Amino acid sequence: MMTCEQAARLLSDSLDRPLPLRQRIPLRMHLLMCKLCPRFLRQLLFLREAAKKYAEGEGEGEFSLSPDARERIKRSLAHQSKEVPSRKNEK
Amino acid sequence: MKNNPSNEMRQALNPETWLKDHGDYLFRYALVRLRDKTVAEELVQETFLAALKGKEQFKGHASERTWLVGILKHKMMDYFRKSRQEIPVSSLTSPEESPEEFFDRNGKWKEQPSHWGNDPRETLEKKEFWNTFEACMTGMPGHLSKAFALREIEELESEEICNLLKISSTNLNVSLFRARTRLARCLEKNWFGTSPGGKKV
């Protein structure tokens, strides 16, 4: 029988490519007999969902720009605004 | 001027408040995907500067934030392309040989994956969860979080990621496996492990 390590790797792979039959069948067998690997699969699917939600902007954590970086960006923006005058008036 | 819709669209861009309105958002966006604070800060700055230069191109179809994120994404892809040589060779060559973190010699789980409750999705509604998620993402080695972010957050196909990072598909599979397992472990320890009913084995 396939080991948990082999099964776990295939479970991860299965999220990225379709598994060939010769891998799929032993994996199914393993999942039927193992109590831990199906949990791992559910965890993988949860991660996928979380990442998707995160990409949609749901997740807003606590990281923020440092005051230093903020100041630097502010200055460079101000600098650039002077260099590139709005072209609105040219139209 | 108020009656001219295209002018009104233009008015929707407010460079003066970009930093205040979107600075942290863009920073987080970049940080979680790149894992490097300095680079994330630089890219946010570059994004604003590019946006300022190209503000005539803003059509107003999308929100200001979506537009800025689009620019940031381009900057990030450029960065990935440029930085791929800098990925430490040791982390990529024969990844199979590095010591296995999660399994014993017989291929059994060293730490058993736990049951995350009946509906872990409820978790995604909780604001605090995302702090843990981000901390776990940024706590991973850079090449792992990069692979995970490109695959699961950007939803690129494996082939695209291999081309972008110039790595083999075997390398990518291993990196994704490691990243996912680490992330799962990290969430298990720092989130699910602390919630009631989460630690049933």
Kindly describe this structure.
Chain A has a domain at 1-59. Helix content of chain A is 67%, strand content 0%. Chain A has helices at 4-14, 21-33, 36-55, 67-83. In chain A, helix 1 (4-14) packs across helix 2 (21-33) and helix 1 packs parallel to helix 3 (36-55). The relative contact order of chain A is 0.09. The mean pLDDT of chain A is 86. The N and C termini of chain B lie far apart (66 Å). The longest helix of chain B is centred in the last third of the chain and has 22 residues, at 169-190. In chain B, 33% of the residues are buried. The model of chain B is unreliable at 1-11, 92-97 and 195-201 (pLDDT under 50). At the A-B interface, helix 1, helix 3 and helix 4 of A face helix 2, helix 3, helix 6, helix 7 and helix 9 of B.
Major beta-sheet overview of chain B? none
The CATH architecture of the largest domain in chain B comes to Orthogonal Bundle
What ranges of chain A have pLDDT less than 50 throughout 5 or more consecutive residues? none
CATH class membership of the largest domain in chain B: Mainly Alpha
Gyration radius of chain A, in Å: 25 Å
The general outline of chain A is elongated
Q: How many β-strand stretches of chain B?
A: 0
Estimated helix fraction of chain A? 55-70%
